[in-house]
Amino acid sequence: MTAVEPKPSAVRDTFDSLDPATDEVVGTYPVHTAEDVQAAVDRARQAAAWWAGLGFEGRAERLRRWNAVITHRMAELCAVVSRETGKPAGDAQLEVVLAVEHIHWAARNARKVLGRKRRPAGLLLSNHTASVEYQPLGVVGVIGPWNYPVYTPLGSITYALAAGNAVVFKPSEYTPGVGQWLADAFAEVAPEYPVLQVITGFGATGAALVGAGVDKIAFTGSTATGKKIMAAAAETLTPVVIEAGGKDPLIVDADADVDAAADAAVWGAFSNSGQTCIGVERVYVHEQVYDRFVDKVVELTRRVRPGEQYGPMTMPAQLDVVRRHIADALARGGRALTGGGVGDRFVEPTVLVDVPEDSAAVREETFGPTMTIAKVRDMDEAVDKANATAYGLGSTVFARRNATRLAQRLKAGMISINAPFSFAGTAALPFGGVGDSGFGRIHGPEGLREFARPKAVARQRFAVPLKLTTFDRTGKTDDLVRKLVTGLYGRRR
Ligand code: NAD
């Protein structure tokens, strides 16, 4: 049992999950109340104790079996993803494949990263041993978005589970079926306790989870919601991880492989209809290769087929945002080299040039299949412009000689060099942003530690005559300690 049981006597509100391409109802789910959410968190407490008791190996074994269920029934899961988000089957598969890779990595590495390790005890306590281990937090509340409804929430859920926590997951109201599918699959491999539960509903259900006494909230979604969650979590001093929006740049140096950069920009901007937190939204290109780059981008963009290579906008309200950004860019002197059209469901792949840097299309998250391209004198200007937003999630660099230096200078949590999005597919790398893109990390060792608390233990192995922490300490001991420390650390050079 993973879903929160509706109360039999109560008349329960429900909501429909729709296919964004047709508005066909693909599922109906309960709107869970604050009471339901509290009950789920209470149940999760017991589950957490059992799950933590399995230890690293026991949990790894269940996580591997979960992976086997997901991989064997991948087509079924992909169909749910496509129905709820509108994305093509191949893109749905790509996100599932990446998520599977992360489950495998987290299961395999949790002990190594979180298990007990010795630390040096230091000179004054050389008769001690010191160690640290990372223990589970207890119950983690995960609140997810709809754009990558498998990959994104599993970035938190997988790592929280591998670290020994139970999870109560509130999927987006646009993709409740995907959330339920994942939890049902997990229940097949851990039927004993509700270690991963799903609660469904809108913002109010998510807000109830934040206030339900969980030990941490892992939120992925918009910056505006992230701020509300953080404010609410402050009431109970509940720690939060915030994975929020982005306005990711791609920069192209004069010595870059221009064709490869253009291909990455086109895929990075338009795949998943541009509804990607780390999607390419802005491009800055060295003047020496600008014309060649723009020509190639336009050529490649003309081959992109909306409805085939990417789906409709999943969230109808986003169409207005995209429409406003394009209209503002054009009104302020920008030119659309391709596309520009925003229909009832689909947005044409849109390449914008000559857009002022202070316009909405350059400063705000568009979350649609658009990109702005700007010419820069040199890479200092590219870095300055790339860094001039409040966001700082991912970035892409196309360059040869200076690639690593450019990557170091970009204000972003993650950088991909000479390929799009590769950091997201590397399970060992931490994922997260700076500024308005949030804080905290999922994935990799940092992602495991995010869902665990360090416990420090110092153990005396044998008593020594030089006792420091007793009222019996003598002046002679104090003298000795002073001389010892001055001798060790007091040298001026
Ligand atoms: P959203 O902020 O509207 O909603 C995200 C989730 O928060 C949903 O489940 C929603 O029901 C819930 N929610 C809404 N109000 C709440 C409240 N007051 N308290 C608690 N929960 C509440 O975001 P979205 O439209 O679903 O997702 C798109 C956004 O997510 C984009 O900005 C995108 O960049 C971002 N995103 C970020 C990452 C990342 O890893 N940084 C990944 C994917 C998406």
UniProtKB/TrEMBL annotation:
InterPro entries: Ald_DH/histidinol_DH, Ald_DH_C, Ald_DH_CS_CYS, Ald_DH_CS_GLU, Ald_DH_N, Aldehyde_DH_dom, Aldehyde_DH_NAD(P)
Taxonomic superkingdom: Bacteria
Alphabetical list of PROSITE patterns matching this protein: ALDEHYDE_DEHYDR_CYS, ALDEHYDE_DEHYDR_GLU
Organism: Amycolatopsis viridis
Matches recorded under CDD domains: ALDH_DDALDH (cd07099)
Pfam family, one: Aldedh
Cited SUPFAM superfamilies: ALDH-like
Protein name according to UniProt: Aldehyde dehydrogenase
UniProt-annotated catalytic positions: E243
Leader sequence segment: none
Ranges where the Aldehyde dehydrogenase domain occurs: 13-457
Keywords associated with the record: Oxidoreductase
Family from the record: Belongs to the aldehyde dehydrogenase family.
